[in-house]
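Budget justification note: compute hours in this period were largely spent on complex prediction jobs such as the one shown. Inputs:
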Amino acid sequence: MSSTGDDDRDSDEIVIHHDPDIYAEDGSLRSDFLMHVGAAIADRDTIYLRQHVAGLHASELGDLLEAIQPEQRVALVLLLGKDFDLAALTEVDEGIRLDIVEHLPNEQIAEAIGEMDSDDAVYILEDLDQEDQEEILAKLPFTERVRLRRSLDYPESTAGRRMQTEFVAVPPFWTVGQTIDYMREDDDLPESFTQIFVIDPTFKLLGAVDLDRVLRAKRSVKIDAIMRDTSHSVPAEMDQEEAAQLFEQYDLLSAAVVDENGRLVGVLTIDDVVDVIQEEAEEDFLRLSGVGDEELSDSVAEAARSRIPWLFVNSITAFVSASVIGLFDATIQQIVALAILMPIVAGMGGNAGSQTMTVTVRALATRGLDIHNAPRIIRREAGVGLLNGVIFGAFIGLVAGLWFQDPDLGGIIATAMLINMMAAALAGILIPLLLEKSGADPAVSSAVFVTTVTDITGFFSFLGIAAWWFRIA
Amino acid sequence: MSSTGDDDRDSDEIVIHHDPDIYAEDGSLRSDFLMHVGAAIADRDTIYLRQHVAGLHASELGDLLEAIQPEQRVALVLLLGKDFDLAALTEVDEGIRLDIVEHLPNEQIAEAIGEMDSDDAVYILEDLDQEDQEEILAKLPFTERVRLRRSLDYPESTAGRRMQTEFVAVPPFWTVGQTIDYMREDDDLPESFTQIFVIDPTFKLLGAVDLDRVLRAKRSVKIDAIMRDTSHSVPAEMDQEEAAQLFEQYDLLSAAVVDENGRLVGVLTIDDVVDVIQEEAEEDFLRLSGVGDEELSDSVAEAARSRIPWLFVNSITAFVSASVIGLFDATIQQIVALAILMPIVAGMGGNAGSQTMTVTVRALATRGLDIHNAPRIIRREAGVGLLNGVIFGAFIGLVAGLWFQDPDLGGIIATAMLINMMAAALAGILIPLLLEKSGADPAVSSAVFVTTVTDITGFFSFLGIAAWWFRIA
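Corresponding output:
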């Protein structure tokens, strides 16, 4: 737990200054540790901070930054100075990252970035404004500047933006012995790697060799005899989500990233891909409930901004549904029981519709649902809707009939439930499918459409049948 | 694309018989490929199937099994016979897996399992009933039987169940040269590996060396000089979700799995962890909408079974909310506009509450929300609720007042909206937090409680204020 040199700091693999004592049972940071850190920040006790904070793993330091008070964050970073591992910023919310980076001198950022893996460096640089970015890049050695700029030139959320530009590449005619000797002598190798790429003199990618293959082969074996094809190399322009799917499908640990001419420009590693998978799952999860790009560190105004658009759209559709009820005001005035029961029909339809919709949106996101099995799933959902309609129509019809001592009312609500459960099932599957087919993100807008369908169908069928049955209009 | 030997088949790493032509643009299997396969199955054309299907990667074969008709699946597997790569069964829904395994003779399963990585083998064995499991295990060589039984003895969803029992381990006093020579000569190494473990004679774990470290070190260097500590080894009894969080936090590629005495029993690899992360995210996603453990291949009855419990609970709470409306039947009879507008108040509250709840449940699942920042987030959500209440209270009050030409009504609905938006915000964050604290899964039951709160608050505040204001009771 003592202070740590630069060499240790930017490596996840060699020595981890892991202090198991900083986490409590439930996975959150221990309160007494946070208290000590808070006190040390208040007292400007850099000795304590160097001893107990500087040596933390980047992700532990990230957890710490997220747990302390916002006003303590910048203070902690400034107190640690060069002992603050900037890689921790890749582990925190964007809001916190930007707040801290803003308070650091560009010199310190440039120095830290020079020591980082290129993918971490890009992660921090990409959020900065153009001016700061240029100022920091200008302070870096030529090779690193060129490498980082190449990554930054690729569009956001592409493999090129997420790749690491440090890799090991050898020509195909080298022997295993030559390759091992090269690795023993070269000091400029990446921090850690799991495969060696094989390239021609123009950097065109020819193949790859996993390290275990190198270790199993005799020294005299030529590299091209043990290399495998790289059918799973990733074009730099490929969307990160698509690249993540390749990793998942073929259980890759890392993949070569190539430019439009098939030249090796970097390597995408599984740890970045895990982050992408997490982000994408989170995005769908939040969007389905009408929450935009939101982070836990967001302020009231930022959080409200991410949620108000959907609430606004819903308030419009709520008025549309209300106007359907308005068509039957005379009916309601005579039979108030209808007003009491109608939210049940609409609400149950909404719940059933959202179940089907959630299953559909998730299946679309994981590519489990496509044109080949869509007809089968649509038939299944219609079957589930029918079954739900019969079961809950009967149950709710019975309870409502007993409650109001009116078998007619029970029969009417049962029929309306059956209709609305069928509508819910079809809306729940067809709306996301149609949105996907039209190129829209089904996670974003399915919910509005589905609840509008189930509200309108629920109110219209229940009140409409009642008006017709009791002959009130 | 020609036929493939056993040695190639169970490896993801060496030669991938990848046929890029089988996928269409949108990532689904190409229709003409499916048509050809379907025709070949119908014609029992084993030559076509061996040529075009047997060589597919396990995950491609899995996609194919999911895309063809249920009755074609078993036929395809039986036609391919020993050329069918059983590892494909780890890539399909449990329902499809069980259906296929049931139709295969235990001899064929045993033979295939003998060739698989142990983690894949356990994945298939664990779903079988005790009798079949024993029969298959009995047909395996002693060592493999012991290894698989050891994995199967660990509870479901633990690291011990998901681990691979094949690994490379060496004593600490070996040199790098000895280690490389050992790997060059031993034919019984795992298919692929990224680190070497260091153990004492009793198999107690002492450390680990990543392969790139081995390659960089001189032959004379002792292993214990380059090994790192294994503070991130995983106890075999650890829940897979907890293990996945370790992988994420420390960007691990693989981790040693140890028994209660610290002895090395297996290795957990990142590809299994990616599956766990996916599963857990999916589970929360589905549960929040009241869908249980459900698969796309489920029948109508199975899907209905996973969804009816939640719909049933909701139908009960819907009656409770309806009875709140029932308290105000006299008020509604005199002012029908109340019946028309009341679903807007309840519905908007439900939407806002579900936004907050979704953010909270997700933050709890990813451990972003804990006791240290909970007070801050609760204050934020209360702020968002107040802001939403003011904005949508004003907007909906204005529209409703104009619609019914009644400023009083506008004022009443605005006030009710403000109250319900605040209730929604507090319910949306406090209910998941309390459920988590009491040890329940917040994803499962938060939604029922939150909508019940917003429905009751919405109806009671709107109708109650109206009854008091217009003095009707």
